[in-house]
Write a structure and sequence with these properties.
Elements: H1 7-16, H2 21-55, E1 62-65, E2 70-76, E3 80-86, E4 89-94, E5 98-102, H3 106-110
Antiparallel strand pairs: 1-2, 1-5, 2-3, 3-4
């Protein structure tokens, strides 16, 4: 079938090369390392920062929840906070629902 190399020579060359087991492990190990540095490590870092932010919540801070509710913290308990979203309107939400702490005065800017 081959015009330039006889079949016997081509078969002998293929049989002489045996795959190196160490070389065949380099690609999967490299992929695991890449997944760790580009996916797993940054995600765990974000989770740690969010957990720290939730533990440090204090009365008087303006926050936004994961549902998009903007309000001021009026009470902090172990697992829940009371969020004042308007005058005489308060919600009790889980601490984990807080997405971000907003700068002071954000609520006044939104009411204009």
């Amino acid at each position: 079938m081959s015009f330039f190399i006889s079949d016997a020579i081509a078969d002998a060359g293929a049989a002489a090369q045996s795959p190196d087991p160490l070389a065949s492990l380099i690609l999967p190990i490299g992929l695991v390392v890449l997944f760790y540095f580009f996916l797993i490590r940054p995600q765990s870092k974000r989770q740690k920062e969010h957990r720290q932010m939730v533990n440090d919540l204090q009365k008087g801070e303006e926050v936004i929840t994961s549902g998009g509710i903007l309000g001021k913290i009026t009470e902090v308990n172990d697992d829940f906070i009371t969020l004042e979203i308007a005058k005489d309107v308060s919600l009790s939400i889980q601490k984990n629902a807080v997405q971000a702490i907003m700068p002071k005065g954000t609520i006044k800017e939104q009411s204009k």
